[in-house]
Amino acid sequence: GELVEPDLESVVERRVHDFINYCQGIMHLNQRYDVWMRVSKDTAAKMDSFEPFGKAVMMLFKTELPFIEKMQVTFYTDKDEVEKQMETAKEIFKARDARTKDLHDEDVEVFYGCTLCQSFAPTNVCVVSPDRISLCGAINWFDGRAAAKVDPEGPQFEIAKGDLLDAVTGEYAGVNDIAKKLSSGEFDKIKLHSFFDSPHTSCGCFEVVGFYIPEVDGIGWVDREYQGMAPNGIGFSTMAGQTGGGKQIVGFLGIGVNYFYSPKFIQADGGWNRVVWLPSKLKEKIDEAIPADLKDKIATENDASDIESLKAFLQEKNHPVVATWAAAEEEEEEEEEEEEVAVAAAPMMMP
After folding, report:
1. Which tens digit of pLDDT belongs to each residue from 308-330?
2. Is residue 255 situated within a structural domain?
3. Do the Cβ atoms of 223 and 207 come closer than 8 Å?
4. Are residues 224 and 332 in the same domain?
């Protein structure tokens, strides 16, 4: 169509998730290279080919997005061809994400919101800012702007930032207002760059989930591709189930992969200095985002498979979190001494 432009590519791409789920018996989750799809047995029994499925999706696209005049749907089922197309797509994703590299939260007047995942997570409030990509990883700030422009009544929309309440945690009055409205009062605060205090809600389509490890006072991250267990003995699926649903769960946080590259990455809680564990493939994937002085100090499944081995690794590498352990021990000792003094000073009860 005449109105189709490159900036709309991600808008169309993300609506695939929305429209496919309109089709009975077919489930679509996630985006980009992390898509999960399931077809029910009843639906599969009625389908001789994917043609009816493709026609239904095209009809929905052309009905909901009038700027699309003609389109084609192609299904790739050959593994080699799928992998070939995947590599091409990854280059496009990389170029798209690079656009926000030099744009930051303080440089813009509005953020963007997305409600596509509210069918799965009714209280989720996805806020997209220059320094924080959507949880699914498919919508950056420019994508949100393009989507809101072409479809003002659609699932992506402007969020007036309002007053900056806390630059470190990334708390804005306008974001708090929209959080309260879209979560039906469930939440009244969302701090964009905080892990513990009023963190961003987590939908279920997030690419990575972060988890706090109290034994080492550090944070680990695990992505969908990792099939093993994290040092806390829990796998991605279980943690995703605990974290998702549009909730704020203290100690867990869903994010998009590109958020690792943000200069404001969980800055309220130590940023990269708090990261202690990553799956090896994810660590390799985001290598450029990890500060050089921390690369060999962050463990993978090859270095630590449980809490004890993780603790030993962090001590050996002198990870920044190790310094907090001594302070915590001193604080505990002081508290114990104060309790002993209080007990000694208490009057004796006579029989």
Report:
1. 999 999 999 999 999 998 766 66
2. no
3. yes
4. yes
140, 143, 159, 195, 324 from 199: Cα distances, Å: 19, 23, 18, 5, 22
DSSP-derived letter for residue 155 is S
- Which own/partner contact pairs does 58-67 have at CB distance under 8 Å and 24+ positions apart? 60/19, 60/22, 61/12, 61/15, 61/19, 64/15, 64/19, 64/151, 64/154, 65/11, 65/12, 65/15, 65/150, 65/151, 67/1, 67/3, 67/4, 67/8, 67/150
Residue type at 89 in one-letter notation: A
Measured from the Cβ of residue 162, the count of other Cβ atoms closer than 10 Å reads 16
Task: Tell whether 262 is covered by a domain.
Answer: no
CATH no. for residue 29? 3.30.1650.10
Single-letter code of the amino acid located at 293: D
Q: How many residues does the chain have?
A: 351
Count of structural domains within the chain = 3
Write out pLDDT tens, residues 1-11. 777 777 778 77
Q: Rounded CA gap, 162 and 16, in Å?
A: 32
Residues 166 and 227 in one domain: no
Model pTM? 0.77
